[in-house]
Design a protein that fits this description.
The chain has 2 domains: 157 residues, Tetracycline Repressor, domain 2 (Orthogonal Bundle); 136 residues. 75% of the residues lie in helices and 0% in strands. It has 16 helices and no strands. The longest helix is centred in the C-terminal third of the chain and has 27 residues.
Length: 305
């Protein structure tokens, strides 16, 4: 990790630069899945406590993003899609990002403990540590399984939301975790198929770099097959029902079909059309996860089993 400070003559940081440090797109997924986990839990939570819980989970997610950007500033400066981030662009000092991440992390964990319960707060603290240390500092630069193991960090929020309501863990929250955990590799590997040069130049051992695109294609299809049973199983629990099951069956059929299309593609064909299929499957993966959690909400509002 290279310490990147504000470049001489660089524009001064604006408020939006500090917001960008928190990775708002990633935070939106954290907020939504945590909210769903809390909402579908079989415990009534006061609206104010629910709002505060989701807010502090979001701040914890933002803290993770800031710590990630602080440590990965050297990588971000090399990769084209991340060169405009506040630290490599010289708008924010690396030490300022580190301070912001640590302060937000401590504040979020403490306030979640006071607002909800200390089990959920401890879970949030572990999640921040897992993303910032286990994934960012250790796994990301060491193993092509970085996104597989590290994907757990993004899968914890619905479990934290559930823990805010119930104070514990259940099969339902574990399956929500599994849904995101097994979705993460094919989602990111589809992106890596048409972003390989970035990871190669940054010397990040993404699967496409270490094992090549054909192996990555096989892994994507395999993970869509592994993912489907867990996604559908969630529909058979106390938070499931016909709405969720119907949505899950359709979405998994589409995702498996997309994985199959990627598997059958030759590199020449993919290069010829600009990786159109890979880009389409990547976009499908975004809808896949979002619509699963929308279906959980809809099922809860309509009534479960």
């Amino acid at each position: 990790m290279t310490d990147i400070n504000t470049y001489e003559g660089a524009p001064e940081a604006e408020f939006r630069d500090f917001v960008a440090l928190l990775k708002p797109r990633v935070m939106s997924l954290v907020v939504f899945t945590a909210f769903v986990g809390l909402w579908v839990a079989p415990v009534d939570v006061h609206p104010f406590i629910a709002f505060c819980s989701v807010l502090f989970i979001a701040l914890g997610g933002g803290a993770s993003g800031a710590l990630n950007m602080w440590y990965d500033a050297d990588i971000d400066a090399v990769m084209r899609r991340t060169q405009g981030r506040p630290i490599p662009a010289g708008r924010i000092d690396g030490n300022a990002a580190l301070s912001l991440g640590l302060i937000l992390a401590g504040f979020a964990v403490m306030m979640l403990g006071l607002a909800a319960n200390w089990f959920a707060a401890g879970f949030l603290a572990f999640t921040i540590f897992f993303y910032a240390v286990v994934y960012t500092i250790w796994l990301k630069r060491w193993t092509p399984q970085n996104i597989v193991i590290g994907g757990a960090a993004g899968a914890f929020p619905p479990m934290i939301g559930w823990a805010c309501a119930t104070g514990g863990i259940s099969i339902e929250s574990l399956l929500m975790f599994a849904l995101i955990f097994f979705w993460t590799p094919p989602h990111f590997w589809a992106l890596a198929l048409f972003m390989k040069s970035d990871y190669h130049e940054a010397q990040v051992p993404m699967l496409t770099v270490t094992h090549g695109r054909p192996a990555t294609r096989r892994h994507i299809f395999a993970y869509t097959l592994v993912l489907a049973p867990f996604a559908i199983w969630l529909g058979l629990t106390s938070v499931g029902g016909p709405i969720y099951l119907a949505a899950s069956v359709v979405l998994n059929a589409l995702f498996i079909h997309g994985g199959w299309q990627i598997l059958r593609r030759s590199e020449d064909a993919a290069l010829a059309d600009g990786y159109a299929v890979e880009r389409r499957v990547f976009k499908l993966s975004l809808y896949y996860l979002f619509l699963h959690f929308v279906a959980l909400l809809a099922q809860n509002l309509w009534g479960t089993w």
